[in-house]
Structure formats: C-alpha cells, structure tokens
Amino acid sequence: GGLILVNAVGQAPTRSRLRNVVASSIKYVIVKYWVDIVTDQLEALQKLLTDAIFDEAALAPALQTLADYCDAPIAQFAITDQRSTLLESAFAGVEHDDIAAMEAEYWCINPRAQALTALAPDRVVTDRDVITPEQIRTNPAYQELLIPKGFGHFAGSIVEKTSERMAAFGIFRPFRIDPFGAAEITRFQAAT
User: Fold this and answer.
1) What whole-number distance in Å separates Cα of residue 90 and Cα of residue 75?
2) How far, in Å, CA of 121 to CA of 165, rounded?
3) How many CB atoms lie within 10 A of CB 130?
4) Is the alpha carbon torsion for 173, 187, 66, 58 positive or negative?
5) pLDDT per residue over 74-89, tens digit each?
C-alpha cells in the first residue's frame, strides 16, 4: 500500500494539482508552526510583564523584551497616584541618567501623561490621539524633554487602574524613525 489520491470525480489528480495540494499542506504547517511560536512568545511576554508589575527584579528584562517585541528602542513602566503624580518610573533602552528626574518635572505638562490618566485599561493611546503636530512644535515637554531624549513617537496602555494608583506601559521611538504602525500597536496591545 501506497497513498492513492483521487479527485471528486474519481480520477487521479494531475501533477499540477498534486503540487498545489502539497504546497498548500506545507504552507499550512509553516503558518501553524509560526502561529504557535508567536503565541508562545506572546504568552511568555505577558507573563513577564505581569511579573514585572509585582517584582522589581523582573522589570528590566520585561521592559527590554517588550521593546524588542514591539520594535521600539525604548519601553517604560510608570506608576502614578490618583492625582496623576508620578510615583515610579523605569525604562529600558534609555542612556540618560537624568531622565527620571526630568520626566517628573515635565509630567504635569506632558500631554501623554494627561491622556493616560483618562484612559481605560486595555486601550492603547498614541501621540496622534492626544496632540497635534502644531502642539508638538510648541509644547515644552516635547521640545525640551521628549524629542531631545529620543521619546518622539509614543504608544501607551494602562495595565492597572484603582482609586489609589495607575500603572502603565509605554513604548517610544525617536522622530527620525516612522511612528508606530498598526502591526506594532496590535503587538503592544496584545502584550499589555
């Protein structure tokens, strides 16, 4: 016994049809394998990010993994109080030691921070949602901090919001790189 293939009218398939069937089967296996890998990678990242919320030691690797997964040079985890005062902030991909102090100084005039406080959990906000190009050219937070330090393009998501605090993840790219596209936003939203 060997394998015998017949089409709907009981005839042996042509060589061309057989090639198409084999090619389709191979594509299915490759796509299924790729989906399994991506799903495993996403589940591992989600676990890492969840651990990072509660374990400071897990924060640095989680942020770097999030940045890599979303094709972003910088990732951040921030916690604010109910009045939107920045309590804690951690970054991956930042080479500036003074960024946390500068961020706290500009937090109250940063349109991104203001948008995040009004955002519902599990929704992603980007610069296009919170500020116009004209406002970017005149906003001190953008001109003095965000753009010079490489935080040009942004996507952020609230992962925890209570009456006492809010926790959020963000990803960033310099303006010299294109803004985050639909694929990166989708990956970021799925991860967070």
Assistant:
1) 8
2) 12
3) 19
4) positive
5) 999 888 887 778 888 8
As a whole number of angstroms, the distance between CA 147 and CA 21 comes to 53
Which whole number is the average pLDDT over 63-79? 91
Instruction: Report how far residue 79's alpha carbon sits from residue 158's, in angstroms, rounded to the nearest whole number.
Output: 10
Helix (H, G, I), strand (E, B) or coil at 188: helix
Two structure tokens written together for 15:
């060589």
Q: Are 63 and 75 in contact (CB under 8 A)?
A: yes
Of 35-49, 72-86, 107-121, the range with the lowest mean pLDDT is 35-49
CA–CA distance from 23 to each of 3, 13, 15, 18 (Å)? 17, 14, 12, 9
